[in-house]
Amino acid sequence: MLHLDVALNRGRFDLEAQLDLDGGVTGLFGPSGSGKSTLLGILAGLVRPDRGRITLHGEPIYDSASGLCLPPHRRRIGLVFQDSQLFPHYSVKGNLLYGFKRRPAPERRFQFDDIVDLLALRPLLDAHPRRISGGEKQRVALGRSLLAAPRLLLLDEPLAALDTNLKAQILPFLQKIRDELKLPMIFVSHALPEILHLTDRMALVGGGRILAFGDLGDILMGQGHGGPRPLGPDNLLAATVEGHDPDHGCTLARCGPTRLALPLRAELAPGDIAYVSLHRGEIALSRREITEISIQNQFAGRILRIESKGSGVQVWIDAGSPLVAEITPRSARDLALAVGDTLYCLVKTRSFSYLLDRAGNPSQPASPVRPAQPPP
């Protein structure tokens, strides 16, 4: 469906990216400045790379070797930004019809009334952008893009400018677009819970490179093509629920060979997959297992790498799933750590934070997290 192989140099920023997609919804996840929005700009025709080739449904839209670079309006790629960028002098209906009227009838993929109803826009048709909320503006922007009959829809952090309540209003509409229209989408975000809501594949982006790409579950477990690298302060674990222990206030789960006591989430059924984050500073390390202690999670792991970072020391551990812990230099000296040593990781139950379960149920907002893997 989409093949991209491009390079771009803009002063101190270099981008080299290769990506092949066959449809569905793909998430681009990474920190600010990593190159996510630049990639979307290249796809949409707003940014011209220095060299490379892009094809969409087998048709070239950019090819540096032949000098081909289709303008944005000929690519039939929709782009929705975090700020809706509606035409202020048009009504909602006028904004929706802008691209629809300019598309020849045989090329129109969706009918006007169908999109209006899908996005619940009918009560807003006569209103002007200044009179509607931020969430409503984003729904109008989505509708305008869809009515322009795109072959691919790009979403550049469309929820970033919205508060928590408005995000909760928009996410169901994005899910409806995914499920009912079957339109290929690329969804950019630096908030992992949003990625988990909508996508089944994820590309990790950093420093102008695609660091890893694959199915969502493989990426979360550190198995995606290319091998992920740390992009945030947290570890991310995909845990399989085994049951609950209400008397002790915990949900019992397993991550690889490691059994975990997580905060109680009684609505999760055995076999469900729950994604939990764990800040690297919440992992205590010990040379031996400790008894008569209130901490419920103790599991052994082997040290893969030790790295000084600023005022802390990062310890990369294989505990069945990759983890990174951060301790003080004094603690590192006292423990006399060495690569290959076996350690015990001690984690309080309340240190785990739920992000999302496989059924799509969100938890409290969390900072961007990802699985930790030792750098090469």
UniProtKB/TrEMBL annotation:
GO molecular function, one term: ATP hydrolysis activity
Annotated Mop domain residues: 292-356
InterPro entries, per database record: AAA+_ATPase (IPR003593), ABC_transporter-like_ATP-bd (IPR003439), ABC_transporter-like_CS (IPR017871), Mo/tungstate-bd_C_term_dom (IPR008995), ModC_ABC_ATP-bd (IPR011868), Molybdenum_import_ModC (IPR050334), Mop_domain (IPR004606), P-loop_NTPase (IPR027417)
Pfam families: ABC_tran, TOBE
Domain ABC transporter: 1-232
Swiss-Prot/TrEMBL keywords: ATP-binding, Cell inner membrane, Cell membrane, Membrane, Molybdenum, Nucleotide-binding, Translocase, Transport
PROSITE patterns named among the record's database cross-references: ABC_TRANSPORTER_1, ABC_TRANSPORTER_2, MOP
GO cellular component, one term: membrane
NCBIfam families: modC_ABC
PANTHER family documented for this protein: ABC TRANSPORTER I FAMILY MEMBER 10
Protein name stated in the entry: Molybdate transport system ATP-binding protein
